[in-house]
# Entry
Amino acid sequence: MSNAPMRDEVVSSGSEQLILVDENDREIGVSSKTDCHLGDGVLHRAFSLFIFNDAGELLLQRRSSHKPLWPMFWSNSCCSHPREGESMEHAVDRRLEQELGLSTDLTFLYKFVYHAPYLDIGAEHEFCWVYAGQSSDVPHANVNEVDEMRYISPMQLDQEMEQDPDSFTPWFKLEWARVRELYVREQFGL
# Structure
């Protein structure tokens, strides 16, 4: 998708206030995005979006080289965090537009907690809400967030993840099998 239009607006910063949660996803405070990801990470609310085209192919993104954690790794279509005082519904719509220039109805699939350290730089420790949706619109990636995009069939993705698992983000590897079961099979019969 190298000929897809790209945008370059700044849509996030280390100072934005994220929502800290306990192991039951109850809000317990806020902290800066930077502080949430330092050291071992602090448990905070996040989301992952999986956007499919009409053929049932998943829109993958390669994370920007400017990302402090997992730069240049392949991942799900879009992921981020709701900000202090922001509903999850607003956050997922906002970020999908900011990062990929898309708007679509999203279906909530499930929530889970994961912890993943990245080298000696920091960690993700997130209570992640997972959503899926479909769009036939052409994505317009934000170059500050996304280095590259491509559509891939579920079968081809399964093969790539088996052959080269280290090129994918840890949360995406944790999410894909369940998204495939809960959404791809139901919506596309694949």
